[in-house]
């Protein structure tokens, strides 16, 4: 087992949760997936860093981290209206936390980390229409201004609605 897999296993022991729980919108009591695989609850991980360093202000963070076949996946679930600047902040601050914890560089994330934004179609208006057109054309259109993150920080970036997430991620990577 490589060092990153071992570190991930340690994170699972301390911050493990189900993918379903990390996808929960507590305000609306809605989960964006029902998948029960154990992942790192990145919010809980971030809270431990806040305590460890005695931070007065908590960084923003994505929701889940999983490690499958030597690849990391950082996942943000967004059930409500999209705020591009908030998402970008979560990405940057999550990257900083992850690179510190795993002792890796951005060069490593560029080759081994995929970012997935899962969004609720009905809350997005125009972006939902754009997404539907992209699906019909069978292209991976990266929505919400996140296309610049691919190749600069991540191996791949995906923006998917809940249904696409079930088909393109859950079925592809998590089905046994």
Structure write-up:
By secondary structure, this protein is of the alpha/beta class. The protein has one domain (3-174). 45% of the residues lie in helices and 21% in strands. The protein is built from 7 helices and 8 strands. The protein has helices at residues 3-15, 19-22, 42-53, 84-102, 106-112, 126-137, 162-174; strands at residues 16-18, 24-25, 30-31, 38-41, 64-68, 71-78, 113-119, 156-161. The radius of gyration is 16 Å and the shape is globular. The two termini are 21 Å apart. 29% of the residues are buried. The mean pLDDT is 88.
Number of helices: 7
Question: Which regions have little confidence, pLDDT < 50, spanning 5+ residues?
Answer: none
Shape: globular
**Any idea what the radius of gyration is?**
16 Å
Strand order within the widest sheet? Answer: 1-4-5-6-7-8
Oligomer description: single chain
The separation of the N and C termini measures: 21 Å
* Arithmetic mean pLDDT: 88
**Number of beta-strand segments:** 8
Structural class: alpha/beta
Topology:
Blueprint: H1 3-15, E1 16-18, H2 19-22, E2 24-25, E3 30-31, E4 38-41, H3 42-53, E5 64-68, E6 71-78, H4 84-102, H5 106-112, E7 113-119, H6 126-137, E8 156-161, H7 162-174
Parallel strand pairs: 6-7, 7-8
Antiparallel strand pairs: 1-4, 2-3, 4-5, 5-6
